[in-house]
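Quick one, tokens below. Sequence please?
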């Protein structure tokens, strides 16, 4: 514990200078204004289509933020050392859950375009009536608030303690972060699982899968580690994070490989078990995605999300090469977007 309690100043040039990226900030701000303008046009022209497009973007970034929060929690619960130098990036992205809470407001306002069960009165559908105790507007809204409060709260306290420790080097912050992480781990698992039930599986109330929570988690964990690789590489090219070595990239690459395998395992298990059982409420999800224009996208997801990254990430040299690993990471993030689509 003595080594961990020492105050080690950041190397020269490691402090982030926001003034260096003023042009990029203006460019992003301009892009945000243009994007907002296009969203307004889309909402006015075709409100139902805009609702689903907004939902897609929201769920995609929600999985990335939750994945980064997961890795922050794992860092503290396992007392990991390799991730110390990249932990702040995970903390920053995880804290964006509060920003996503604002972006969830349009979903609540446009809910009747998204969730069919909200438009069906009681007594009209026997399947829905059996789920009314869970699928009702007051409890749906309450759960949505709880997800952001719980997940955002864990992210907030972990980052706050981390910044405080950087400021004064108090070893008690490490102990408190570990305690928050242990408490936050089951909270994270339950909140992410039920959010996946409400916001994604709830789009079709007749379909259900008990493996949906782990499936969403697997994609979130793998894609967020890929996002971390891209962020770290970009910062290193800008002159920061010089303490990140090829061994750090090797570890991140191994985690990308591990969760590509885990994602495929959960996805195949879900498909095999439900398809073999041949229950209409379960197989309808796969019937839609195995026919017509969805079939090529499903095959692209299978080969692009698992077989391709799996074969490439088996090579040790790829995992130790920042630029090559970044290409694979970018591809995995793209496949995560396809999966959420």
């Amino acid at each position: 514990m003595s080594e961990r309690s020492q105050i080690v100043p950041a190397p020269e040039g490691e402090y982030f200078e926001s003034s260096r990226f003023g042009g990029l900030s203006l460019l992003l701000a301009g892009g945000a204004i243009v994007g907002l303008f296009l969203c307004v046009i889309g909402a006015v022209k075709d409100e139902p289509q805009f609702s689903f497009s907004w939902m897609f973007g929201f769920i995609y970034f929600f999985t990335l933020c939750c994945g980064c929060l997961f890795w922050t929690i794992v860092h503290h619960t396992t007392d990991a050392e390799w991730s110390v130098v990249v932990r702040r990036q995970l903390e920053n992205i995880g804290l964006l859950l509060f920003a996503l809470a604002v972006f969830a407001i349009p979903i609540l306002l446009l809910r009747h375009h998204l969730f069919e069960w909200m438009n069906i009165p009681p007594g009209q559908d026997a399947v829905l009536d059996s789920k009314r105790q869970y699928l009702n507007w007051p409890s749906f809204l309450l759960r949505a608030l709880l997800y952001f409060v719980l997940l955002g709260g864990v992210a907030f306290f972990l980052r706050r303690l981390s910044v405080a420790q950087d400021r004064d080097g108090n070893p008690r912050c490490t102990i408190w972060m570990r305690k928050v992480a242990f408490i936050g781990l089951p909270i994270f698992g339950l909140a992410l699982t039920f959010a996946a039930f409400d916001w994604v599986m709830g789009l079709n109330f007749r379909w259900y899968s008990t493996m949906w929570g782990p499936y969403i988690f697997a994609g979130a964990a793998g894609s967020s580690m890929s996002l971390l690789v891209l962020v770290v590489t970009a910062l290193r090219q800008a002159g920061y994070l010089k303490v990140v070595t090829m061994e750090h990239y090797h570890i991140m690459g191994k985690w990308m490989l591990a969760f590509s395998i885990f994602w495929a395992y959960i996805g195949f298990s879900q498909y095999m078990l439900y398809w073999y059982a041949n229950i209409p409420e379960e197989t309808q999800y796969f019937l839609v995605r195995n026919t017509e224009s969805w079939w090529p996208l499903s095959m692209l997801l299978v080969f692009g999300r698992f077989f391709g990254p799996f074969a490439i990430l088996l090579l040790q040299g790829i995992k130790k090469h920042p630029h090559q690993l970044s290409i694979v990471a970018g591809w995995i993030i793209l496949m995560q977007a396809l999966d959420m689509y």
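Residues 24 and 105 are 28 Å apart (CA to CA). Confidence is low (pLDDT under 50) at residues 1-5.
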